[in-house]
Amino acid sequence: MTENMLDITNLTIWVAKKDAPKKMLIHDIQMTVPKGEIVGIVGESGSGKSITMKSLMHILPENVETANAGFLFNNRPVGPQERIPAAMIFQDPMTALNPLRTIGYHLVEVIRRSEKMSKKEAEQLAAAELAKVGITMPEKRLRQYPHELSGGMRQRVMIAMALLAKPELLIADEPTTALDVTIQAQILSLIRRLQREEQLTVILVTHDFGVVAGMCQSIKVMYQGRIVEEGTTEEIFYDPRHDYTKNLLKAIPTGEKGKRLYSLGSSSSDSTESDAVYTFQQVSPTHRYLVKQEG
Ligand SMILES: Nc1ncnc2c1ncn2[C@@H]1O[C@H](COP(=O)(O)OP(=O)(O)OP(=O)(O)O)[C@@H](O)[C@H]1O
User: Fold this and answer.
1) Which residues does 292 contact at the CB level (< 8 Å), separation at least 6?
2) Which ligand 1 atom is nearest residue 177's CA?
3) pLDDT tens-digit profile of 229-288?
4) What is the ipTM of this complex?
5) Mean local confidence (pLDDT), 90-117
6) SS3 of residue 122 by DSSP
7) Which of 102, 108, 191, 227 is 20 to 30 A off residue 44, Cα-Cα?
8) Helices 103-114 and 151-164, interaxial angle, to 10°?
9) Which residues are CB-neighbours of 69 under 8 A, at least 6 positions away?
10) Element containing residue 121 per DSSP (H, E)
């Protein structure tokens, strides 16, 4: 039987608003992530993918609160502020890298946070990690500043930094969205290789179905703060049931970020919408989709 690395039950996330009722961003999500798999979370901009992932890492913005956010990591309950062995990489490495510090500084910082070693030893380890993620002339790169590297190279640096934290789970949030197609393919293939070599579990967050196709064993489709459909990659691609999934699939060749592809005619903040009752329709043991209850 497949073991789950992550088991999320009843995750609800609200944003507090000045002089206005709280707005629900995430509606009672349940999600499991099997150990050793690459799981895709797909949905257009604003569907709640990032905020769900940030809640796992306890890096939610201050104006946001969670309710009933109990989750299991390797079958063990995780405390409200407990850190799980997970690392997250983001769309834009520049936001995570200090432009005034060298690449080496960033990597050595991460290494020395968890291990006692000299600067020289840490630099050797950093160079080895850069080589592992496909960066040539790693010793030279250590002395360079973020702006001296290309976008793809910077994303490789972010992946190296993430790996230095020795995660069991890697959350990649739109890791290739800012990159051109060739580089995108290289970064995805790097993530796939590392997943195998390091026996990582990976959550790949994207708005683009084209990205998850060759990467993921299973897919969860998010829309307006809910998972509206989930299944194996084959089930989602060849037998989509929810209208939103069907529309996203139709849009694959363009997959334009931010483009509204489907609408229920109201946003997630609409009280009528949040009061509506949804239930899952099971298609197979692994495939289900959300249905709105009428009446
Ligand atoms: N700190 C915040 N305050 C208010 N609203 C927020 C905050 N963070 C996120 N939101 C809102 O929550 C919703 C989900 O945002 P989230 O960033 O998770 O979406 P996403 O699916 O990851 O999209 P993107 O790819 O654009 O990041 C959006 O409507 C967003 O405007």
Assistant:
1) 276, 277, 278
2) 25
3) 999 999 999 999 999 999 999 876 544 444 444 554 334 444 345 567 899 999 999 999
4) 0.92
5) 92
6) helix
7) 191
8) 10
9) 8, 10, 11, 12, 13, 55, 80
10) helix 119-132
Which of 51, 54, 62 has most ligand 1 atoms within 8 Å of its beta carbon, as the pocket-test mutant? Answer: 51
Other C-beta atoms within 10 Å of 119: how many? Answer: 11
Report pLDDT for 267.
Answer: 40
Assess contact for 11 and 220: CB atoms under 8 A: no
What the block records as the tokens of 98 is 């200090």
Q: Specify the pTM.
A: 0.90
Residues having CB closer than 6 A to ligand 1 are 15, 25, 43, 45-51, 61, 63-64, 174, 207
3-state secondary structure of 49: helix
Q: Specify the ligand 1 atom closest to the Cα of 207.
A: 25
What is the pLDDT of the chain when averaged over all its residues?
A: 88
Residue found by looking up tokens 């209208």 in the block: 243
Residues 248 and 44: beta-carbon distance below 8 Å: yes
Q: Are strands 169-173 and 86-89 parallel, antiparallel or unpaired?
A: parallel
Residue written as token pair 């099997």 = 34
* End-to-end Cα distance, the chain: 39
